[in-house]
Amino acid sequence: MTTMHIGGPARTFIHAQSEEELISVVRDADSRNEPVLIIGGGSNLLISDDGFVGTVIRVETSGNSYEIDACSGGMLTVAAGADWDQFVAFSLEKNLVGLESLSGIPGTVGGAPIQNIGAYGHEVSEVIARVRTFDRSEDRIHTYTASECEFGYRTSRFKSDRNRWLILDVTFQLKRGELSLPVQYSELAAALGVDIGGRAPCVEVREKVLELRGRKGMLINHDNQVWSAGSFFINPIISGERAELLPADAPRWPQPDGQVKTSAAWLMEKAGVNKGDRNAGAQISEKHVLALTNSGDATALDIIELAKSARQKVFQRFGITLEPEVQMIGISLD
């Protein structure tokens, strides 16, 4: 049930295929003080080898509604259990702009606002209009506008308290057109043959993004017997002063608040973390250093030990502590 193919059993496992069923099973578990783990595509999870002593609920709701104006664009409301990349493809079929650079990200629509998923210079928060939730603390349905979601780099109000909000559906506001949002990422710009800030046909952007992600091993491939959760660590955001202490060739992306984002992958490679490094069945991907993979028989502990080793090397070399992007259940790096 996870893309890493790692984790012990659940005491109870429920496939929730309608919104009514989803709310009902969560309410029931909460009323019994039963521990609950809500999952979607299982693409951002590392679950303990001991499993989960409680109820695991897989969100499998589906369906969407949309209104598209011939000139301005569209408002699309999509169920939390819908496959993310299938939704991206659907939006492009409708000639809507805004999601093309987020192609190929595994998971479900409901997981997108929790993590504020992003790639190649854009984040999903740029196109979210509202998020409808079930508030488990207040036992009511509540809709948050984008400004109320407290979006940040790979975070949101829904991530800060994962046990409170259950995402029911997400509404996106997308513009109509054939050209993409401005291309902000140098690697993608080079692949498209445009300048930073330039635009390209959305379909071409999607094709190049999928190609680039494939080269890095960041696409879900169930046939190669090597499984991962994508990027294991997030790119650190550090003070301007600390950024000045990094080597001159270190990536630096200035942030609006004066801080600087740098590359976790660059830090790892410069600290001596190498593609192909192994710990038992766990391996640093041979395609991209940020992906920690299960090469067939890895345990959660194998992955954790490999991650700790990489984290320690970066801290010893640069004094920066890498934070995991992957949600860990029953296990920790600390």
In short:
With 334 residues, the chain is α+β, with helices and mostly antiparallel strands. It contains 9 helices and 20 strands.
Our estimate of the beta-strand percent is: 25-35%
Shape: globular
Mean pLDDT equals: 94
Termini, distance in Å? 25 Å
Listing every helix as H and every strand as E from the N terminus to the C terminus, the arrangement reads EHEEEEEHEHEEEEHEHHEEHEEHEEEHE
Which architecture of the largest domain does the CATH hierarchy give at level 2?
2-Layer Sandwich
Number of strands: 20
CATH class of the largest domain: Alpha Beta
Tell me about this structure.
The protein is α+β, with helices and mostly antiparallel strands and 334 residues long. The protein has three domains: 50 residues, Uridine Diphospho-n-acetylenolpyruvylglucosamine Reductase, domain 2, CATH 3.30.43; 151 residues, Uridine Diphospho-n-acetylenolpyruvylglucosamine Reductase, domain 3 (2-Layer Sandwich); 103 residues, Uridine Diphospho-n-acetylenolpyruvylglucosamine Reductase, domain 1 (Alpha-Beta Complex). Strands 5, 6, 7, 10, 11 and 12 form a six-stranded antiparallel beta sheet that branches. The protein has a four-stranded antiparallel beta sheet with strand order 13-19-18-17. A hairpin with a 4-residue loop joins strand 5 and strand 6. The two termini are 25 Å apart. The mean pLDDT is 94.
